[in-house]
Amino acid sequence: MNVVVIGGGLAGLTVAYRLKQGGAEVKLLEASKAVGGKIGARKAGGEPFDIGANTVLESNDAIRRLIDDLGLRGEMLFASPQANARWILKRGKLLPFPDSPIAFLSTRLFSLGAKLRLLREPFIAKATREETLAEFAERRFGREILDYALNPFLVGVYAAKPEDLSARAAFKTLYELESECGSVVKGALAKAKAAKREPKSYSGKMFSFAGGIYAMIQKLSSALGASIERGAEAQDIQREDGKWRVFYAQQNEMRSIEATHVVFATPADATAALVQPLDRTLADALAAIRYSPVAQVFLCFTREEVPQPQGFGFLAPEKEERQILGAVYNSAIFPSRYQTVAFTVFLGGSRKPELVKYSDGTLIEVATSELQSILNLKARPVVESVAKWERAIPQYRVGHSEILAKVEAFEAREKTLAFAGNWRGGVSVPDTVAQAEEIARKLLAAKG
Question: Which of 49, 162, 382, 394 has its CA 20 to 30 A from that of 407?
Answer without folding.
Answer: 162
